[in-house]
Amino acid sequence: MNHIRLENISKIYNASSTQAKSVMALLAEGMDSAAVKQQTGYSVGLYDINLDVKAGELHCIMGLSGSGKSTLIRHINRLIDPTSGKIWVDTSIDTQTTITDADEPAATQKPSAAINVLELNDQDLQHYRQQTVSMVFQHFGLVPHMTVMQNVAYGLRVRKMSTEERHEVARHWLNEVGLPNLEHSYPDELSGGMQQRVGLARALATDNPILLMDEAFSALDPLIRAQLQDQLLELQERLHKTIVFITHGIDEAVKVGQRISILNGGRLVQTGTPNDLRHNPADDYVAQFMRAKA
Ligand SMILES: Nc1ncnc2c1ncn2[C@@H]1O[C@H](COP(=O)(O)OP(=O)(O)OP(=O)(O)O)[C@@H](O)[C@H]1O
């Protein structure tokens, strides 16, 4: 079952629709984004991305710096609007009851009860962000003058949950990420790894079915990063969230991703399980990543 579908998504930064059309005509002829930038001056964020993310899967988006990973993930919660294309999200899915079969072929239809995120008005977009998608940021994004408890409970306050109830929920999630007894601390009293556990607890406390993780572990030391990867996998065994996880590291992608999508110059080169990519790489770019892994 698909949870998220990106359909023909292109993003040409800072271009009018006429300018974007001529840029996309060059891309359609096969010109790569570096040559397009040189010829037209416009940056290609993404070009003609078609991507299905299944309900309950941990889907990694991988690629070198500038390949379009952040641009892609920011479309899903509409921090960025595309130049063209559609973004479907099935808001009827409760991932906690959905078990994914990573080998199941992606359906060819759009998700069954899907909304086009691009058509949401301001109020519906706010509701979508509060009830459907949560984000974990690379640099944690915690509010410095709020305690750990207040940070984790923040998303629940806007839902008008009582103080007692939201503190109970926040305490539960702090416990789940291995941070009991720190609720009265402030972010700057914690290590980077601890701060990101708070970031994770904050995202999980909302109970939203989709989790967007933008290089969430990249700022951490290798040992701490490995611990957080293990913790994420352990939580995911029980929670079955739909997770879109951005990384520039193939090791991380292979460790945590059930499927991996590889971007190059704003184009989606291949989506597959780590085994698919290893045994049937779509091109040399993918093959090189997988060789670097072996
Ligand atoms: N706000 C912006 N204005 C203009 N160009 C942009 C903007 N944001 C990104 N780009 C360009 O779009 C392309 C994709 O950038 P993006 O940040 O999505 O890549 P990325 O894979 O996330 O890179 P990194 O790993 O370095 O974060 C790059 O060429 C980048 O320079």
UniProtKB/TrEMBL annotation:
Keywords recorded for this protein, A-Z: ATP-binding, Nucleotide-binding
SUPFAM superfamilies linked: P-loop containing nucleoside triphosphate hydrolases
Gene3D superfamilies xrefs: P-loop containing nucleotide triphosphate hydrolases
Organism: Psychrobacter fozii
Top-rank taxon: Bacteria
Species lineage: Bacteria, Pseudomonadati, Pseudomonadota, Gammaproteobacteria, Moraxellales
Protein name as catalogued: Glycine betaine/proline transport system ATP-binding protein
GO molecular function (one): ATP hydrolysis activity
Domain ABC transporter: 4-290
